[in-house]
Design a protein that fits this description.
Layout: E1 3-6, E2 9-12, E3 16-17, H1 23-36, E4 40-42, H2 50-60, E5 68-73, H3 80-94, E6 99-104, H4 113-125, E7 129-135, H5 139-148, E8 151-157, H6 165-173, E9 177-181, H7 193-202, H8 206-215, E10 220-222, H9 229-236, H10 245-252
């Protein structure tokens, strides 16, 4: 397992995403992930699955100190009172007394990021949060955040079809991690001929090649999701081979500015 050490946090670079998972399916997926070897679990208030994730954590039987749990405060909950209540609910639903990483899920132009992070830092000082991060922050806003508080990561859409070089450069400048969501391009990577051809050389699937590509980038992680045990296991079996420099370059060359997640409330992106 690749561990990234940033701002004092030891973050398993390959995490398990739970977006759009609910109920018993989500709980079983978390149990599967823990059995496979994942120790970084990613959820969010807006996913409405923190209780299911918490049930999976309890059923999985892994010591809390061996887990790295990330959750996110929704963009409407940036006021001091709502931030506190959001964290209260997340901790209650997850069945834990602290989260390892608490993110601002999306930037909200109605609230200054400096003020929001100042409130979030209060929870760090109280021990209910270990580290802070952001998600979906373009470079200029990330720079403001990084000056206001120790930022562990910027979680953004990142896959072979969307370069995030500017985001990554900004993160490296501030000793932060870039965590890729939708790392397999919402399934597009599975059928990509270039990725499949590279995978054939290593006896790996297109998805495994893609996830390995993330692992070989400095200060970059990924949080793929998987509903079944075999799928989770496949995604995790990426630490027994290494892509050549030429293959890394071939994957980078797939970038075509294809952004797959563009909500109306999103910020002005850098590319």
């Amino acid at each position: 397992m690749k561990i990234e050490t940033v701002q004092g946090a030891k973050v398993p670079a390959l995490g398990f995403g739970t977006f759009r998972m609910k109920g018993a399916e989500c709980t079983q997926a978390v149990v599967n992930a823990l059995k496979v070897g994942y120790r970084h679990l990613d959820t969010a208030e807006i996913y409405e699955n923190e209780k299911a994730v918490g049930d999976g954590i309890q059923a999985g039987g892994i010591a809390r100190t061996d887990l790295f749990i990330t959750t996110k405060a929704w963009m409407d909950d940036m006021s001091p009172d709502r931030l506190r209540k959001s964290l209260d609910q997340s901790l209650r639903d997850l069945g834990i007394d602290y989260v390892d990483l608490w993110l601002i899920h999306w930037p909200n132009p109605k609230f200054a990021v400096e003020e929001t992070l100042a409130e979030m830092m209060k929870e760090v000082k109280q021990g209910r949060v270990r580290h802070l991060g952001v998600s979906n922050f373009p470079v200029a806003l990330f720079e403001r955040a990084a000056k206001a508080a120790p930022i562990v990561c910027n979680q953004v859409e990142y896959h072979p079809y969307l370069s995030q070089s500017k985001i990554i450069d900004a993160a490296l400048k501030h000793n932060a991690l870039v965590t890729a969501y939708a790392p397999l391009g919402i399934g597009k990577c599975h059928s990509d001929e270039t990725l499949a051809k590279i995978g054939a050389k290593y006896g790996k699937t297109a998805a495994q090649v893609t996830l390995r590509w993330f692992m070989q980038q400095p200060h970059v992680g990924a949080i793929p999701k998987a509903s079944g045990f075999d799928h989770a296991k496949e995604n995790f079996e990426i630490f027994d081979f290494e892509l050549s420099g030429a293959d890394m370059a071939s994957i980078h060359a797939l970038a075509r500015g294809e952004r797959l997640i563009q909500p109306d409330f999103g910020p002005q992106w850098d590319n």
